[in-house]
Amino acid sequence: MTENTAAQTKKSSPVLVLLAWIVVCIPAAWGIYNTALNAMKLFTETSTTMSGTPTTTPQK
Amino acid sequence: MALLSFLDRERSVAPPGFSRWLVPPAALAIHLAIGQAYAFSVFKIPLTQLIGINKSVAGDWKQSQVAWIFSLAILILGLSAATFGKWLEGAGPRKAMFASAVCFSAGFFVSVLGVHFHQLWIIYLGYGVIGGIGLGLGYISPVSTLIKWFPDRPGLATGLAIMGFGGGAMIGSPLAVKLMAYFRTPTHVGVGRTFLVMGVLYFIFMMFGVFTVRVPREGWKPEGWTAPAKSSDMITTHNVEVNAAFRTPQFWLLWIVLCMNVTAGIGIIEQASPMIQDLFKGTVKPVAAAGFVGLLSLFNMGGRFFWASVSDFIGRKATYFIFFALGAVLYYFLPQTGGNHLDNVRLFVTITCVLLSMYGGGFATIPAYLRDMFGTYNVSAIHGRLLTAWSTAGVLGPLLVNRIREAQLSQGVDKASAYQTVLHIMAGLLLIGFVANLLVRPVAEKYRLADKSPASPASLHPVPAK
Fold first, then answer.
1. Judged by CB atoms within 8 Å, which residues 206-265 of B form the interface with A?
2. What are chain B's domains?
3. CA-closest candidate to residue B405, choices B390, B426, B384, B387
C-alpha cells in the first residue's frame, strides 16, 4: 500500500501541512532569534579582533 | 473513559492520503516544549531570592540546593524513558505524548505549590520527578513513529525531532525571563506565576502534537519507495525485542558510544563561559562569554539536524567515526588555541562550535543507529533504555570536569593550564567511544524475532535464543 493507492483517497491539504509547520516554526524562530542576538555579543563585545590582534575599538 | 479512547493507538492510525510531513511538526511540538528543561538555570537565582526578593537572605534556598531540581529531572528522564519505553510501543505515540504533556505541565503546577509554601522538596517532586517523567516519555514518544513514517530518511526524521529538544531551551529561556519580569512585584520575584503560565502554555502546545500525530497504517510505505532487499550489513531487515536487545553486545557498545560522546560534550558545556574567559584573559569579557554560550546552543541544535541527515547518506557508523576521530583531535588541540599558545579566539570558537555540533549530532543520530541494528519493532523502548547513558554522562561529565579542575587548581596549576588536562581527558574518552563504535557489528541471528518485517509489536513473538 502506498501513499496514493487509490485516486479517490483524500490527501492532506498542503495548506494544512504548511500551517502545522508554521505552528512549530514561529516559537522556534523566536527562540533562535533571541539566541542569535545573544550570540552576537561574542563578536561585538570582544576587545580584540577574532584573530587576536588588538583593535582601537573602545569597550562598551 | 470514552473520551480518552481518542488516545488509543487504533484511533491514531493515519487514513489513506495522510501526509507524513504532518508528523515532524507533531514531534517538534513535544520536543520544543520539553527542551525547556535545559533552560531551567534561568530560575536558579530567582528561586534563591524568594524571601529576600532582591538578594538571598537567611532562610532562602542555596544555589547548590536549587541545582538538584534540574539534575533530578534529567535523572528521571533517563529512568522513565527506560521504564516506559516498552509500554509506549503498545500504547502508541498519541497516548505517550498526552501522558508526557500531563506530567510535564503537572510538574510546573506542583512546583507552584513549592514556591508558594517555600518547600523545596515539593519542587523536587514537581519539576524533578513528575516533570522528569514527562521529559522521558516525551523524548522517546515520537521516535519510532518518525522512523516508520520515514524509512527512507530515518536520520533526517529523528534529527528534526531531537533538534527540537536542543531548540527548546532557546524558547524556554527568554520566555521565562520575560514572564518573570512581567509578574515581578516588590513582594514577589514572579517565579510562581511564571511556572503556572508556562505549565498552561506548554500543555496547549504539546496538545497540538497529540492531536496531529498519526501512526502509519500496516504495510504503508512512501510513494515510489521500495525497501532495499539488502543494502548493507549494518542495516538490518530484522527486528529485535527490547529485552533481547538489552542482552546484545551491540546495545552496550552503543551505550558506551552515547555516554562518551555526551560526557565529552558536557566537558565544554559545563565550562564554556569561564573557559573562554580564562583562556583569553582580558580579551573575552563576561558579556561576550554569554554570547559564546548562545552560539554553542545554536551549533548544538543545528548539529542535531545536520549530522543525523548526513548519516542517512554516509551511514551511522561512519558518522560516529567522524565524531570520535575528529572530536578527539579537536579536543586535544583546543587548549593550544588559548592565550598561552596561539592566542586565536576565532580558532577556539570555530573548534568548539564543531565539537558542539557533533555533541548534538550524537544525540540525534543514535535512534537511527538503533533502528539499523535492531529494526523498528521496539526501537523506542530500546532508545529509552539507551538514554540511561545520558543520565550517567550527566553525572559523570560535570563530576570529571569539576573534580579534575579543582585538583589541578589546588596543586597550583594556573586556570588556563588546568583546562588542558580536562580537555585531554575528554579526548581520551572519545577514543574509548571510537573503539566501541568500531566494534559494532550486525546483531547475531539468535536475538532476532521470527517475522522480519512486522507492523505492530502485537504481531510478533520472539524466537527462543539458541
1. 208, 212, 217, 219-224
2. 19-212 (1.20.1250.20), 242-447 (1.20.1250.20)
3. B426
| Domain total in chain A | 1
* B129-138 mean pLDDT: 96
ipTM of predicted assembly, 2 dp: 0.85
Tell me whether residue A28 is in a domain: yes
Of the pLDDT bands very low, low, confident and very high (cuts 50, 70, 90), residue B1 is low
Is residue A25 situated within a structural domain? Answer: yes
Helix (H, G, I), strand (E, B) or coil at A45: coil
Taking residue A8's Cβ as centre, other Cβ atoms within 10 Å add up to 6
Residue A5 lies in a domain: no
pLDDT value for A56: 35
Nearest-CA residue of chain B relative to A27? B171
For range B311-320, the mean pLDDT: 96
Looking at CA atoms only, how far is residue A3 from chain B in angstroms? 5
Residues 26-55 in A contacting B (C-alpha not used; CB under 8 Å): 27-28, 30-32, 34-36, 38-48, 50-52
Q: Is residue A45 a contact partner of residue B288, using CB atoms and an 8 Å limit?
A: yes
Q: Assign A48 to helix, strand or coil.
A: strand
pLDDT of B416-425, one tens digit each?
A: 888 888 899 9
Average pLDDT over residues B343-372: 94
Range of the domain at A29: 13-38
Nearest to A35 among B212, B287, B298 (CB): B298
With a CB cutoff of 8 Å and minimum separation 6, the contacts of B450 are B460, B461, B462, B463
Q: Length of chain B, please?
A: 466
- Residues of chain A in contact with residue B297, where contact means CB-CB under 8 angstroms, are 35, 39
CA distance B263 to B359: 9
User: Are residues A2 and B223, on separate chains, in Cβ contact within 8 Å?
Assistant: yes
Three-state SS string across B278-337, please? HHCCCCCCHHHHHHHHHHHHHHHHHHHHHHHHHHHHHCHHHHHHHHHHHHHHHHHHHHHH
Q: Cell 505541565 appears where?
A: B105
Residue to mutate among B13, B23, B171, with most A CBs inside 10 A, is B171
Q: Confidence class of residue B116 from pLDDT cuts 50, 70 and 90?
A: very high
Q: Which residues contact B100 (CB under 8 A, 6 or more apart)?
A: B30, B34, B134, B135, B137, B138, B141, B206
On whether residue A2 sits in a domain, the answer given is: no
CB B291 within 8 A of CB A42: yes
The identity of residue B295, as a single letter, is L
Q: Do A28 and B208 touch (CB under 8 A)?
A: no
